[in-house]
Amino acid sequence: MEKVIMCRNLTKRFGGFVAVDGISFDVAKGEIFGFLGANGAGKTTAMRMLCGLSFPSSGEAEVAGYDVYKQQEKIKKHIGYMSQKFSLYENLSVSENIEFFGGVYGVNKKEINKRGQELIRALGLTQEANKMVGELPLGWKQKLAFSVAIFHQPKIVFLDEPTGGVDPVTRRQFWDMIYSAANAGITVFVTTHYMDEAEYCNRVSIMVDGKVVALDSPTNLKLAYNANSMDEVFYQLARGAKRNDN
């Protein structure tokens, strides 16, 4: 399968502290790739390097065919990004956010108008199109933010804790949107601290203290660690358990 992300011994140091310690993995086109780890494990630092927002200290990586050292601006044009902390301007309306981010991503005005109207209808926000985003419920904000992140039809979308704070029903709806994006050929690279969401991924990578300590499908990881859930897998790995494939 076509690889859209490639990492080889990717490392990030801050002085004497190693935040990301020689991680290696590939991600295939259209894959939903979960990037898991406790706070401070290094996953956000790793994601920032892959998004072209931070230079690695050493190692190699390509995203959408572009080098993370030399072609950061090209990477940014071929990816979408959604952060839990900041994804939309709350003092702009739904329509204004779509128009603004469409322009930032280089979509022409005619296409922004066309896709924007389709998006508003698809999200059921026709009556709220001119409402300030700050007035929307959190679940609607999150779904709109994801839709804006893939508005320009990128090869890859990076989602950093995208469902934090939303109710279980909205989380399920959000994952339906992720599946639709993946079925359309968009690769989804997602961090989450909800271990049940790891079950929705094709494969998951688990980081502990800056290192990737496990990488496989949720089913294979549960078998390898004799676990009934990804919560149990994560707990065992955090305690230094070794994989058992016998």
Automatic annotation (TrEMBL):
A GO molecular function term, named singly, is:
ATP binding
Q: List the SMART domains.
A: AAA (SM00382)
InterPro entries assigned to the protein according to its UniProt record, in alphabetical order: AAA+_ATPase, ABC_transporter-like_ATP-bd, P-loop_NTPase
Instruction: Give the EC number.
Output: 3.6.3.25
**PROSITE patterns per record:** ABC_TRANSPORTER_2
Q: Name one Pfam family in it.
A: ABC_tran
- Looking at the record, the residues that make up the ABC transporter domain are 5-234
Q: Which domain of life is it from?
A: Bacteria
Keyword flag Hydrolase:
yes
Arranged from A to Z, the UniProt key words for this protein are: ATP-binding, Hydrolase, Nucleotide-binding
User: What EC class does the entry list?
Assistant: hydrolase
PANTHER family recorded: ABC TRANSPORTER G FAMILY MEMBER 20 ISOFORM X1, ATP-BINDING CASSETTE, SUB-FAMILY H, MEMBER 1
The identity of this protein, by name, is Sulfate-transporting ATPase
Organism in which the protein naturally occurs: Sphingobacterium sp. (strain 21)
**Lineage of origin:** Bacteria, Pseudomonadati, Bacteroidota, Sphingobacteriia, Sphingobacteriales
